[in-house]
TrEMBL record:
Belongs to the class-I pyridoxal-phosphate-dependent aminotransferase family. This is PLP-dependent aminotransferase family protein. InterPro entries: Aminotransferase_I/II_large, Class-I_PLP-dep_aminotransf, PyrdxlP-dep_Trfase, PyrdxlP-dep_Trfase_major, PyrdxlP-dep_Trfase_small. Residues 30-388 form the Aminotransferase class I/classII large domain. GO terms for molecular function: pyridoxal phosphate binding; transaminase activity.
Length: 403
């Protein structure tokens, strides 16, 4: 039977993520993966994490097994508010509210549903997070891109674009940005540019959708003040997640934003999944209260820093004449820009034969430019694998260019 004739027209608008496909390959056999964005759990404080759960889940067993409010368990909202205040100095204002999400990925989808009408203009970074593009595109927006330099989004270019659009009578709905330790670019936006973005949003009256999963994974200096901390009007939607500081398997993210927006998200979430897993929320409450995330970060950040350094020196050894790359101050990724106009999707075919994978850059660009770029993850492979994988990648590259 041909099943496809039953599908909706909109199904065509959903794209398979290249990263998901890669993860399937890496699950199947032993490959060196620079592909996914996986934390390294070798440093996870398992013993402490399990001990605190044993105590608390006994007491909270009935509640942890039950349905919960769509907005999330209020105790979790409270501990996350404290976490944001302590770690990044971010305080909820009187007009703000919070909702717990099933991973911040859900926030991308729900925010797209709440905000985007077909034809609305949204602005993203070039490159941006591919799953954000995959969430926005089915709502049929018109997407504009603003390039990044080594410090992240070029706000002068953003201002120029806004002037042009507004002179044509066009209004922007929102800017989606990942200001700290960017996925995939590995960039961190300085404070002046964060302020500049906010000023522009105020002046040209659009929203800022700030996605901040990597701020606490900082190798140099302190986490950055989010753009949300400059928000005195309620135009910044702040989103974060426990995926990179505790566990992606918990599937817990959150949005802090203006009350009526949070209400809208709550309404749509009710349809999507009723609420985020109660059990996960109870685990998260304990792990945050008992500072398991702090313990994990204090062990994993030095490890990731060493892995970043290993990747930077392997790149220097193998690719110094062939391209350039970002030098992330934190996070899990860096981006390589090859000098030659080769398609890294082709390179991936050659490197997979040698047992190394990465994510070709094209899918991180809303206009499918960036074919000669690639995202490289350094948090998951070991230092040894990084050095071996980079040698194999260079061999694959040499084979491709001489083919
Ligand atoms: C920028 C960004 N936003 C959102 C997500 C989704 O994360 P999760 O759904 O695990 O919270 C990720 C995951 O890698 C990400 O890098």
């Amino acid at each position: 039977m041909s099943f496809s004739r039953f599908f909706s027209d909109d199904l065509k608008l959903y794209r398979q993520s290249d990263v998901r496909e890669l993860l399937k390959v890496t699950e199947q056999k032993k490959v060196i993966s620079f592909g996914g964005g996986l934390p390294d759990f070798s440093m996870f404080p398992f013993k402490e994490a399990i001990e605190v759960l044993e105590e608390s889940l006994m007491i909270n067993f009935q509640r942890a097994m039950q349905y919960a409010p769509t907005k999330g368990i209020s105790q979790l909202i409270d501990v996350l508010k404290d976490l944001m205040k302590i770690e990044i100095g971010l305080d909820a204002r009187e007009y703000d509210d919070m909702i717990i999400l099933t991973g911040s990925q859900q926030g991308l989808d729900l925010a797209a549903r709440a905000l985007i009408n077909p034809g609305d203009i949204i602005i993203v970074e070039k490159p941006t997070y591919l799953a954000a593009l995959n969430s926005f595109k089915p709502r049929k927006p018109v997407i504009y891109g603003v390039s990044q330099d080594s410090d992240g989004l070029n706000t002068e270019e953003l201002e120029k674009l806004l002037r042009e659009l507004y002179s044509q009578g066009k209004k922007v709905k929102f800017l989606y940005t990942i200001p700290s330790n960017h996925n995939p670019a590995g960039t961190t936006l300085p404070e002046e540019r964060r302020k500049h973005i906010y000023e522009l949003a105020s002046k040209y009256d659009f929203l800022v959708f700030e996605d901040d999963p990597y701020n606490l994974i900082m190798f140099e200096g302190q986490p950055m003040k989010p753009i949300k901390s400059f928000d005195h009007e309620g135009r910044v939607i702040y989103m974060s997640t426990l995926s990179k500081i505790l566990s992606p398997g918990l599937r817990i993210g959150w949005i802090m934003a203006e009350k009526s927006f949070v209400e809208a998200i709550e309404l749509i979430k009710q349809v999507a999944d009723l609420h985020t897993s109660t059990l996960s929320q109870f685990i998260a409450i304990e792990w945050i209260k008992r500072k398991i995330y702090k313990e994990f970060l204090s062990r994993s950040v030095p490890l990731y820093r060493a892995k970043r350094d290993a990747m930077l020196s392997s790149l220097e050894e193998n690719f110094s004449n062939e391209g350039s790359w970002t030098r992330p101050k934190g996070g899990l990724f860096l981006m390589m820009y090859l000098n030659r106009k080769i398609d890294t999707k082709e390179l991936l075919k050659f490197s997979m034969k040698r047992g190394v994978v990465f994510v070709p850059g094209e899918s991180f660009f809303h206009d499918s430019s960036g074919k000669n770029t690639m995202r490289l993850n350094f948090s998951y492979p070991t230092e040894k694998e990084i050095s071996k994988g980079m040698r194999l990648l260079k061999e694959a590259y040499t084979e491709l260019i001489s083919a």
